[in-house]
Design goal:
The chain is α+β, with helices and mostly antiparallel strands. It has three domains: 2-56, Molybdopterin biosynthesis moea protein, domain 2 (Alpha-Beta Complex), CATH 3.90.105; 65-284, Orthogonal Bundle (Hypothetical protein af1432); 294-338. The chain is built from 13 helices and nine strands. The chain has helices at 36-44, 65-81, 94-105, 108-120, 122-141, 146-158, 168-171, 179-186, 188-195, 204-212, 233-247, 259-269, 276-287; strands spanning 2-5, 19-20, 26-28, 49-52, 294-297, 302-307, 317-320, 323-326, 335-338. The longest helix is centred in the middle third of the chain and has 20 residues, at 122-141.
């Protein structure tokens, strides 16, 4: 069974999985034969990819050359342009990043999975690439061996791939999910592992990192409700990267927060949810980039961070024109964004 783009479906192929539309309405069933009429229906229902039975086609390629070049360009641009607090700090992991890009480019299944993430919405794709980069950097900052850095990048890149099995009406809902909807969304973890079976880089460490990236130290996570010592160390890294990038990104149901506020959020969650070592590693290395950062304050002024408070670097001294604000003081404004 393999994933095929809707435009690459051919008459006579056999569906490998049921296809559902809005409100979980069954559109087509596993085993159905693809016809031109069915393909037209899938296009109208905004279905981007389907699974087909491998025995239904002798073709080996699931992606057109145009699709392949689109993904290559998108991956390369995102890996080179994503910046932390205005600075590109990823040169240290360029080698493992490029190794992974090359391995993906010769694996049609991996390419198809990335392309399908992009079809959910652009955020889902970009977030996965960002989490891959951040995970690699955290592993590098922790002096992990080369294999662990590469595993962290790969796990971060594919951590949310199972979301392509979740109905878009749930993923893109602009307000909080119901309990049933959230339970459905949580299935993306195990569904993703099934989708990733057979990929060249899917060793046991990557598999466990993806499986555990929503587990939390106090046992409140999913899918297994694991506690601290049972969570894979690379999963701890991916979880921190995931929370940070989600916090600084605008989504359909929430506004982005500033990187400084995101670090405060990571610190708070490290008390009982996120791994404190991975959290501290990210925070301390981002704080090194604070000085000189142009920020937006809650009083409407723009300023520049000029000094870090050693007791709480997330509440620095900010100069805005002739005014200086010590954000440790309760009467001072807060940082709401980065210029």
């Amino acid at each position: 069974m393999r994933l095929v783009g809707i435009q690459d479906l051919k008459h006579g192929m056999i569906l490998g999985e049921d296809i559902y539309g809005g409100f979980d309405m069954l559109i087509a069933s596993k085993g159905d034969i693809i016809t031109d009429k069915m393909k037209e229906l899938l296009v109208r229902m905004s279905v981007d990819f389907v699974y087909v039975d491998d025995s239904s086609s002798d073709e080996n390629t699931t992606l057109s050359e145009e699709d392949r070049q689109e993904i290559l360009t998108a991956i390369s641009e995102t890996f080179t342009t994503y910046r932390l607090l205005g600075k590109n700090v990823f040169s240290k992991i360029k080698s493992p990043v490029m190794d992974i890009v090359q391995s993906i480019m010769i694996d049609d299944h991996a390419l198809a999975l990335l392309l399908s993430l992009k079809c959910i919405d652009n955020y889902s794709y970009e977030h996965s690439v960002h989490v891959g980069l951040l995970s690699g950097m955290i592993a590098y900052w922790q002096d992990k061996p080369a294999k662990s850095i590469k595993d962290a990048i790969y796990a971060g890149l594919f951590h949310d791939v199972g979301k392509i099995t979740v109905n878009k009406s749930i993923l893109l809902k602009p307000f909080p999910l119901s309990t049933d909807e959230f339970d459905t969304a949580k299935n993306h973890v195990l569904d993703g592992l099934e989708l990733l079976n057979g990929l060249a880089e899917m060793n046991d460490d990557v598999r466990l990192a993806i499986m555990h990236h929503h587990e939390r130290r106090n046992g409140s996570g999913y899918p297994q409700g694991l506690t601290g010592p049972s969570i894979h160390p690379i999963a701890n890294i991916v979880a921190v990267a995931d929370v940070y990038d989600a916090s600084i990104s605008k989504k359909c149901y929430k506004e982005a927060i500033s990187p400084v506020a995101a670090c405060e959020e990571i610190f708070t969650e490290s008390l009982d949810l996120l791994d404190p070592t991975a959290s501290t590693t990210l925070i301390r290395n981002l704080q090194k980039l604070y000085v000189g950062l142009k920020v937006i304050l809650s009083n409407g002024e723009t300023g520049e961070i000029v000094f870090l408070n050693k007791f709480d670097p997330n509440k620095p001294l900010v100069r805005a024109g002739d005014n200086f604000y010590d954000l440790m003081q309760s009467s001072s404004p807060t940082i709401t964004g980065v210029c």
